[in-house]
C-alpha cells in the first residue's frame, strides 16, 4: 500500500551502550510512528468501503499531517476536526493537510474536551456518512498492534527500550509485544502532577499489565509542546554532535531524560539501551 524503510539504528557516541532507531527516516513525508499506527487503520477503512477518514487533532498535529497524506496517497478524502479557532490562522502543518485534500473544521476547546464521546462524533458522522472515525493520535487496538513493528529494528541483546508517550499507543504496543528480559520505559510529552493515573488506566485498559508500566517523568520539566531553556540547549547540542535532528515535542524530552537518568545512575551504562526516535520533524516548523 505505502512502502517505507525499516528504520536502522545510529549510535549516540557519548553513551556507547545507547543506540537510536531512526524512525524519523522511515519515510520522507510520514516521518515516525504515525506510519506504523495508521497503516492498519487505513487498511480497515478501505476494507469497510469507507471513502473518507475523519479524525481530530491540534494545529501542529503530526497525526493529522500523516493521516491526510496517507488518505491522499490511497485516493481517500480526509476531514480534520481541529482544536482551535480559525482566527488563530493556518499553521504550516495544516497548510500541508489542506494541500493533501483534508477539509478542516475548527472545534472550540470546550467541545474538543468531549472528543472521545459519541455525542461529539455523531453530528460529524452524519455530515460525512461514508467516513471512518479515527481517534486522536490514532489511539485504537489496531494502531497498538501496528506499533509492534518497531521490534524489527531492535536487536536481541537489548535490555531497555525507551519511547515517547503522547496518546500512549506506541508505548502500549511496545510493552505488550516486548520479549522476555526487555523493559520498556515511556517518557510522557506532557505533565501530570498527580502521577499519570489516567494514562496508567488507559494503558491497562489496552491490555498492558500494570506491573510492566514504567514511566520516566522526572525530567519532562514543562508542559506539552514546550521545552525548558536547558532542554532547548540540549536539543541543539545533541543535533550538532550526532547529526540526528529531534522534534521539539516528543524526542527531545526522551533523550534529555535518558541523559539525566544516566548521569544520576551510572549503572545504566551497563544496560543495552535502544531509543525509538518517533520522528515528528515537521513540528520544527513555526516554533
Ligand atoms: C504521535 C507521536 C508520539 C506519541 O505517540 P503515541 O503513540 O500517541 O503515544 C511520539 N512522537 C511523535 C513524533 C509523534 O508524532
Uncertain regions spanning at least 5 consecutive residues: none
How far the N terminus sits from the C terminus, by CA atoms, comes to: 33 Å
Which overall shape is indicated by the principal axes computed on the Cα atoms? globular
Radius of gyration: 19 Å
Query: Quaternary status of these chains?
Result: single chain
Question: Which terms would index this structure?
Answer:
287 residues; binds pyridoxal-5'-phosphate; six-stranded mixed β-sheet; 10 helices; 10 strands; 17% strand; four-stranded parallel β-sheet
Notes on the structure:
35% of the residues lie in helices and 17% in strands. The protein is α/β, with parallel strands linked by helices. The strands form two sheets. The protein has a six-stranded mixed β-sheet, sandwiched between helices. Strand 1 and strand 2 form a beta hairpin. The mean pLDDT is 96. Bound molecules: pyridoxal-5'-phosphate (PLP). Pyridoxal-5'-phosphate is lined by residues 32-34, 62-63, 137, 164-171, 247, 250, 278-280. The site of pyridoxal-5'-phosphate has 19 residues, from helix 1, helix 2, strand 7 and helix 7.
List the SSEs and their pairings:
Layout: E1 9-11, E2 18-22, H1 33-47, E3 52-57, H2 62-73, E4 77-83, H3 92-99, E5 102-107, H4 109-112, H5 118-127, E6 131-134, H6 141-146, E7 160-165, H7 169-176, E8 183-188, H8 197-205, E9 214-215, H9 229-242, H10 251-264, E10 273-277
Parallel strand pairs: 2-10, 3-4, 3-6, 4-5, 7-8, 7-10, 8-9
Antiparallel strand pairs: 1-2
Helix pairs in contact: 1-2, 2-3
The structure holds pyridoxal-5'-phosphate.
Amino acid at each position: 500500500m505505502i512502502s517505507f524503510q525499516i528504520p536502522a539504528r545510529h549510535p549516540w557516541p557519548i553513551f556507547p551502550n545507547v543506540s537510536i532507531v531512526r524512525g524519523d527516516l522511515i519515510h520522507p513525508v510520514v516521518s515516525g510512528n504515525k506510519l506504523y499506527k495508521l497503516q492498519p487503520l487505513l487498511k480497515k477503512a478501505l476494507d469497510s468501503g469507507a471513502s473518507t477518514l475523519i479524525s481530530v487533532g491540534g494545529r501542529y498535529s503530526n497525526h493529522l499531517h500523516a493521516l491526510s497524506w496517507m488518505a491522499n496517497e490511497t485516493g481517500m478524502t480526509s476531514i480534520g476536526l481541529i482544536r482551535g479557532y480559525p482566527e488563530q490562522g493556518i499553521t504550516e502543518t495544516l497548510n500541508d493537510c489542506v494541500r493533501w485534500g483534508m477539509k478542516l473544521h475548527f472545534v472550540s476547546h470546550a467541545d474538543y474536551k468531549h472528543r472521545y464521546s459519541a455525542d461529539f462524533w455523531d453530528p460529524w458522522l452524519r455530515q460525512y456518512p461514508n467516513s471512518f472515525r479515527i481517534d486522536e493520535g490514532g489511539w485504537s487496538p489496531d494502531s497498538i498492534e501496528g506499533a509492534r513493528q518497531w521490534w524489527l529494528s531492535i536487536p536481541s541483546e537489548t535490555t531497555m527500550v525507551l519511547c515517547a508517550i503522547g496518546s500512549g499507543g506506541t508505548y502500549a504496543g511496545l510493552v505488550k509485544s516486548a520479549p522476555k528480559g526487555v523493559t520498556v520505559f515511556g517518557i510522557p510529552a506532557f505533565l501530570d502532577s498527580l502521577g499519570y493515573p489516567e494514562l496508567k488506566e488507559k494503558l491497562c485498559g489496552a491490555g498492558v499489565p500494570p506491573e510492566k508500566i514504567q514511566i520516566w517523568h522526572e525530567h519532562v520539566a514543562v508542559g506539552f509542546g514546550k521545552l525548558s531553556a536547558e532542554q532547548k540547549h540540549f536539543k541543539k547540542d545533541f543535533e550538532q554532535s550526532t547529526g540526528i535532528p529531534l522534534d521539539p515535542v516528543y524526542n527531545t524530552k526522551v533523550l534529555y531524560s535518558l541523559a539525566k537518568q544516566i548521569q544520576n545512575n551510572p549503572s545504566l551504562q551497563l544496560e543495552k539501551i535502544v531509543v525509538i526516535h518517533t520522528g515528528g520533524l515537521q513540528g520544527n516548523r513555526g516554533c
